[in-house]
Amino acid sequence: MPYYRVVGEVPRKRHVQFRRPDGGLYAEELMGEEGFSSDSSLLYHRYLPTAIVKAEAVTPTTEARLEPNLPLSPRHFRTQELAGAGDLVTGRMLLAGNGDVRLSYATSDAPSELYRNSMGDECVYVQRGRVRFESTYGAIEAGEGDYVVIPTGTIHRWVPDGQVNVLAIEAGGHIRPPRRYLSQYGQFLEHAPYCERDLRAPSEPLVAEGEEVPVLVRTRGGLSRLVYRNHPFDVVGWDGCLYPFAFNIDDFEPIVKKTHAPPPVHQTFEGPGFVVCSFCPRPLDFHPESVPIPYNHHNVDSDEFMFYVGGDYSARKGSGIDVGSVSLHPAGFTHGPQPGAVEAVIDAVSRGVTVTSEKAVMIDTFRPLDLGQGALSCEDPGYAWTWSR
């Protein structure tokens, strides 16, 4: 994270005695990235965060197998057809992935158990509904359009208010704002499409009581369930630059040009081997002879995974794409507007249309994406041929 926060009670100096009202010591925990040479936070627990009383291996309840995208083909998946099972953690249906990132869809109205992903950061996009994200850092109320970014190793749970639909982006490392948006000291620069004021983090401690509390833990070796002697939500205060936060897609400020701008202007986050972009309602290109729609393009180094979450997709009319759809355009395939879309948009502009209402979340990966069983179970088999109609 680019800036420092303090929540709850912390001592004036780091690594000094900090005593409870009864005279005992709070237990200090340092959460630090990259061998403690990058962002970190100090958390102060009422009980030892190291005290576990039981550990057991866990067999995954959902299929995590991936298959190569063969024969090479653009794909269309209808997440609207996926039936929810489990919660927003155990009920994730794998759509696509590689060694850098896993992309899953989940829909549930059930609270999740406590969970810790020790493989990498997560970015969970809330497509529909409202949910309370609870963690050792505190709580965040999240709703439609929110990205919730969760640092590696954060113990947390999801508590939906009714049914919630999410896209879960699970990284093999850390997810951060793009470097080009930040000063050398970490402040958002004036040209950035969002800033510190747009980020929402926990504002007060979240303390829960309990003994022998299970936590599901994902590591590179698989899944385990650790039973903690005391409830992990026992932090009375923390400070630092590492913490979960939420950012709403409607707070992204689109960058526009006279003629059509390429996807990097939509970049929102970066991770190891991938980027996350937000396509938001914005003014159409305003050169008098512009073609205000994406040109045919071939991103030779990336696979493009696009999750359509709202608005009208002028470039995709006739393809079957709708809200809730996912398109996958792999490297090795040139893609662009559907036949007739360019002419239709130019005609709309001539009749006074000046804005586009599309809203989508895009993940570009720099290694090929393989296909998960969740995606294959809701694929539109005719999508690849829609450019030939």
TrEMBL record:
Its cofactor is Fe cation. Homogentisate binds at residues 313, 335. GO terms for molecular function: homogentisate 1,2-dioxygenase activity; metal ion binding. Keywords: Dioxygenase, Iron, Metal-binding, Oxidoreductase. GO terms for biological process: L-phenylalanine catabolic process; tyrosine metabolic process. Gene3D superfamilies: Jelly Rolls. Residues 23-248 form the Homogentisate 1,2-dioxygenase N-terminal domain. It comes from the Bacteria. Residues 279-387 form the Homogentisate 1,2-dioxygenase C-terminal domain. The active site is at 260 (proton acceptor). The keyword Iron applies. Fe cation binds at residues 297, 304, 335. Pfam families: HgmA_C, HgmA_N. GO terms for cellular component: cytoplasm. Belongs to the homogentisate dioxygenase family. This is Homogentisate 1,2-dioxygenase. It comes from Nonomuraea phyllanthi.
